[in-house]
Specification:
36% helix, 29% strand, alpha+beta, three-stranded mixed β-sheet, 118 residues, 5 strands, two-stranded antiparallel sheet
Length: 118
């Protein structure tokens, strides 16, 4: 299992996101280059995170000042990767182990979903 270390900034963002949406979050990624925040939310909390007609995620985005994306956590690595690429349809995932026990995953999507996946 991979250990997640949260920075003080991420803990603050997660706390703010959770209080705005009611969804539990396990991690966040701050993507300054694309002015967005990506939250890894607890399984089953997608409805809370998005809210009725997108109200929760829109409010959180306005308050936090960045576009927000959510990915549902799954303890199965393959399913978690598929969740990361949604709405693109993943057709295959190849896991490889390299030097120093580093693991990589190559994810393949349908041709028509390449733009979404990138």
């Amino acid at each position: 299992m991979v250990e997640v270390k949260l920075t003080e900034d991420c803990m603050r963002l997660i706390s703010q996101f959770e209080s705005l949406t009611g969804a539990g979050s396990r991690d966040c990624v701050v993507d300054d280059r694309n002015a967005r925040l990506i939250f890894v939310i607890n399984p089953g909390d997608m409805g809370l995170a998005i809210g009725k007609k997108g109200a929760s995620i829109k409010k959180a985005s306005e308050v936090m000042g960045k576009k927000i994306e959510v990915v549902e956590y799954n303890s199965n690595v393959e399913q978690f990767l598929k969740n990361c690429f949604l709405p693109a349809q993943v057709t295959s995932i190849l896991f490889e182990e390299g030097e120093d026990d580093q693991k990589t995953a190559t994810v393949e999507v349908r041709d028509e979903d390449r733009g979404i996946a990138i």
